[in-house]
Amino acid sequence: IFKTFAVTERINMQFRTEVFNLTNTPSFGAPNATISGWTSSTTGATPNSANLGRITATNSFYNPRQFQFALKLTF
Known about the structure:
Blueprint: E1 2-6, E2 12-20, E3 38-41, E4 44-47, E5 66-74
């Protein structure tokens, strides 16, 4: 979005706004595919799969909502 203002007859100033990821939609990472550690029980040691298949982080390329403002002077 931008708006141009006339400063003088030959000079203009432009105010610009740029928005990235306006809806702030997250990009989730892949689900956990590893079994971490072992849990002991009365029947013996069993794998601890508490986080198996869970998504616990966002994608490493995910950028949250960002606003950028600028002034441009043309003559």
